[in-house]
Amino acid sequence: MNATVILSAYYRHKPGGFTTRLYRAYRALDAAGYRVIYIATETLPVEGERIQPVILPMRSRPTSLWYWPEFYWRAVRELRRLTREHQVQQHLMFSFFYASLSILASWGLGVRTLTFIRGDDIFDAAKKRFARPRLWVHRVLEKLGIRYSHQVITTSETMKAIINQRSGGQDKTQSLPNNITTQALPIQLPNIRQDTVRIATLSVLNPRKNQLLVLQALQQLPAQHWEYLLIGSDNSGLDYQAELQAFVADNGLSERVKFLGWRDDVPAILQRCHLLLLPTLHEGSPNALLEAMGYGLPCLASDIPEIREILPDPELLFYPHHPAELTRKLERFLQLPGYAGVIQAKTAQCSARYTFDWDQRLVALVDAAVDG
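-> structure tokens emitted (372 positions)
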């Protein structure tokens, strides 16, 4: 018996939480016996017995104004061809943008599109260049996606409520949060009288991730025995890293703030750290925070609805629009004996809800759509 074919699309590899979960979805479906065919402009770094790439012959360069129109047109054509050739009944897409490819390509073919939403593109668009046209496009994509997707799966109850309020679709939306996939590491709590306290943030660099707030908070600390590691690359399109580096230089922090870029040895780096900070202004279900929780690292994060779902203890949260509260909590972390242990214990207490088999739940959603 031939394996059921699932079609998907993503333009090319970018490091980050989005592709981490996309590739994991492909591997989970492959392990469950599905055949996954994805359309892309290059082979993605995900392999499996039944995972098959179909590469689009792009003429435009990624920096060209014609790149996205060409990708969209070619992807729609190829999706429709493959849908007919393999009699596909199921498309799996991450984001409303890719859902729109599926909806156009499968018009009249009876395909069920499962749309997984990893973040709020409308929120992000407001913080990018050409915000007005971006906002209009993403609002249209969201409404189309809600109307024509078979089901929309968000990463948090907060995001589900926001999308339902904006675009309707209460009968189509549900949430599947990310889970903790990491194992506990031998994290050493700092000896605040002797150790340099090593603090890390793991995320792409852009205004939504709000790393400038951490730098502002650190700049106000009277204590000097700290080091701050920023793990991740700039994807803002606004040269946000240069803005952060200018702040570091202007405030004499260059010796204690390190920009590491994307690294393959993140577990080894975090094992040597004492605290993870997540200053984000908006999230879905942040992989970086969940990974750090799994490692056993003390965590402090933004007091926003999406993070409160994961870290409901107010001691672990700080106001993300002004550095004063974060500065106070960092002062306690650096100066009070035993406070790091308190934060570590409170972080651990929040982990239980996120220890589950994400792959199994994703496959169950696809099974239900295929059988339905």
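The longest helix spans residues 67-85.
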